[in-house]
Design brief:
This protein is mainly alpha-helical. The protein folds into two domains: 29 residues, no CATH class; 234 residues, MetI-like fold (Orthogonal Bundle). The protein contains 14 helices and no strands. The longest helix has 32 residues.
């Protein structure tokens, strides 16, 4: 009597995973994941713990204070002022950059000689570092030797203090950052404009619509995804403004340009109150998450992807 052959053994789950494409993929990306976990995720978790402690970054003793750092935020007048400055800056910078970027992109969305050169020139502002931008605008707005004041004097207007004035400095930083981010907005809008079907404009022109009406009723609604992307991206960057303030005014004059992140840096690395600074950072993170969620929620009504 012949013996019945036993069925082949099914490979174990571990063996199947080892031979799968997913395992190969994870093996390839694991060094990067490990580096991100060590140098990205771990500091985030450590800073979260730090926000519940009192630390000067020097002493090994870090007593637990619970929510005291977070409670102090609401009663800190300097933090309240920094929030107000940040909101004013964001309210001016975000729509200003989007408007200037859209106008420049619309002007470049045509076939002209040397247009590629013009488009490249528009993006040059994004290649200029934050430090360089600050130096350029400090020179331009210098009260004694700046080109801006020289132009004002030429038309009979007295020299302005600009970055040295508590009432003007924040607005100068707004103009400076709009100039610096315009190239980014131009690239995004130019790509979106080139995706608008020309047939729609041709049909509207046949119906008698003028160029402005076609732009307002056809182009602008189709720019919804680009508008949403820029709105979210620029808002997040505006709420984290630091480099331009650090380079030009150091939060002055009279703390008129002290924004949240600059005040955070000052508390952590000048006053050595790291626990309070960490609480400030997580409060800002929460605000950014909430604002971004609200923007996406509202965008559902106005942004269409088809």
């Amino acid at each position: 009597m012949l013996e019945q052959a036993s069925p082949p053994r099914r490979p174990s789950l571990l063996a199947r995973l080892a031979r799968s494409e997913n395992a190969s993929g994870w093996a390839l990306v694991s060094p990067g994941v490990l580096l991100i976990a060590i140098f990205g995720l771990l500091p985030v978790l450590m800073s979260l713990k730090l926000s519940f402690q009192k630390s000067d970054l020097l002493s090994p003793e870090t007593p637990w204070v619970g929510l005291d750092n977070y409670r102090t935020l609401a009663s800190d007048p300097l933090f309240v002022d920094s929030v107000r400055h940040t909101l004013v800056y964001t309210a001016l910078f975000v729509p200003g950059t989007m408007l200037v970027g859209l106008l420049v992109a619309a002007a470049m969305n045509r076939s002209l000689r040397f247009m590629s050169l013009y488009r490249s020139a528009a993006y040059v502002t994004m290649t200029v570092s934050t430090i360089s931008q600050g130096i350029i605008f400090m020179w331009l707005t210098d009260r004694d030797f700046g080109l801006v004041n020289a132009g004002l004097n030429a038309v009979g207007i007295a020299s302005q203090p600009f970055l040295s004035s508590p009432s003007q400095a924040l607005y100068v930083i707004v103009v400076m950052t709009i100039w610096g981010w315009t190239g980014f907005a131009v690239v995004i809008y130019l790509a979106a404009l080139q995706g608008v079907p020309p047939e729609l404009h041709e049909a509207a022109a046949i119906d008698g619509a003028n160029p402005f009406t076609r732009f307002r009723t056809i182009t602008v609604p189709l720019l919804g995804p680009a508008n949403l992307f820029l709105l979210v991206w620029l808002t997040i960057n505006a709420l984290q403004l630091f480099g331009e303030v650090y380079q030009t005014t150091r939060g002055g004059p009279l703390r008129a340009t002290t924004v949240v992140v600059y005040y955070l840096w000052d508390r952590a690395f000048v006053q050595f109150d790291a626990g309070y600074a960490a609480a400030m950072a997580y409060a800002l993170f929460f605000v950014i998450v909430v604002i971004t969620a609200v923007q996406f929620r509202i965008a559902r009504r106005y942004v269409h992807y088809s």
